[in-house]
Design a protein that fits this description.
The protein is α+β, with helices and mostly antiparallel strands and 316 residues long. Strands 15-18-19-20-21 form a five-stranded mixed β-sheet, sandwiched between helices. A four-stranded antiparallel β-sheet has the order 7-6-10-11, with no helix packed on it. It starts with 6 loop residues before the first strand and ends with a strand. 21% of the residues lie in helices and 35% in strands. The protein folds into three domains: 81 residues, no CATH class; 68 residues, no CATH class; 144 residues, Trna Endonuclease, Chain: A, domain 1, CATH 3.40.1350.10.
Length: 316
């Protein structure tokens, strides 16, 4: 990923915010949630990119601007530089004064020679051909190319889109993460799991929690988070993971640590019943994954799986 673009920019496709570079590199994840998670870890830097204008009726960004009359709202308008002839008071577009390379009044037929004496330039004007009124600015409307609704700037919705810049100090962590997600998801799928990555799950408290991977098999559900650090992952990451899994029904919880977990953090994982997988890269991680059992350790959570408050949110 660090060999690719240094800034990840969004596109709106089919009314959905996408990040093509993320989809290309890590096709199994939901791009926006994936990027927000990396930004929360300091791996990426989130910055405002642009405010996208959206149709208030259908949410589409496929809008075409239209200039209309400020007074009667007709779109039958013309624009151009306007000239005011002092002698007869004729005010018209400069194009209508042009004749054989000279400025000639179409009303009194006199030639306009000296600006400031014979005439003045009014500036750019929008003229309505229906009501005949002029204005210095048009009324701007947006025509939706999807639902054909017409909206004004007062009615339009604005959606702030963000770009994500790679934190140059975190290159190792970035390469580790991008090289782990896809092989890990494929490994779990081959093991017979249905995989969602990332997964936004509503806990029993009503709070929504994001996990890097949710793996389902029959009546079991396993929650994964992937964390990285330059030397070793500390206990703060374990406490954060535990606070989430405590609120969400599950059978197994797995914390994948790159490159390794600190001794104190390992003690916490043992206390909290969290399975730990460590490795410098995907080869070590998959090797460790093959040695652990992801079957439910007990049936104590069976009834919890039927809890209506367990809800995986679909943001597609």
């Amino acid at each position: 990923m660090t060999d690719g673009p240094k800034v990840l920019t969004p596109k709106v496709v089919d009314k959905k915010i996408t990040y093509p570079d993320v989809t290309r590199l890590v096709p199994t994840v939901e791009p926006l949630e994936f990027l927000d998670r990396l930004a929360a870890q300091g791996i990426l830097i989130k910055e405002k990119y642009v405010s996208e204008i959206l149709c208030p009726s259908c949410g589409s960004s496929e809008l075409r601007d239209r200039y209309t009359c400020m007074f009667c709202h007709s779109d039958n308008i013309e624009t151009g530089e306007m000239i005011d002839h002092y002698a007869c008071g004729n005010t018209d577009f400069e194009a209508n004064f042009q004749k054989d390379g000279k400025l000639v009044c179409s009303k009194c037929l006199k030639e306009l020679k000296v600006i400031g004496t014979d005439y003045r330039r009014v500036g750019k004007v929008f003229q309505c051909k229906d009501c005949g009124k002029d204005s210095s600015i048009p009324r701007i409307t947006h025509l939706c190319q999807d639902c054909k609704a017409v909206s004004t700037w007062e009615q339009a919705r604005l959606s702030i889109l963000y770009k994500y810049r790679i934190n140059e100090k975190k290159k190792k962590e970035i390469d580790s993460l991008t090289g782990i997600y896809l092989p890990l998801v494929e490994f779990l799928q081959k093991e017979g799991f249905q995989v969602q990555s990332p997964a936004l799950i509503q806990g029993e408290s009503g709070v929504e929690h994001t996990f890097d991977i949710l793996a389902r098999a029959e009546n079991s559900q396993t929650l994964f988070d992937i964390v990285t650090d330059r030397e070793s992952v500390g206990d703060a990451a374990v406490i954060t993971f535990f606070s989430k899994i405590l609120d969400v029904p599950h059978d197994e919880s797995v914390l994948i640590c790159v490159p390794k977990l600190s001794d104190r953090a390992k003690s916490l994982c043992k206390l909290y019943g969290i399975t730990v997988v460590e490795g410098d890269g995907i080869a070590q991680i998959l090797s460790s994954m093959a040695t652990i059992s992801l079957k439910p350790r007990s049936t104590s959570h069976a009834s919890m799986l039927q809890n209506p408050r367990f809800h995986v949110t679909n943001r597609s």
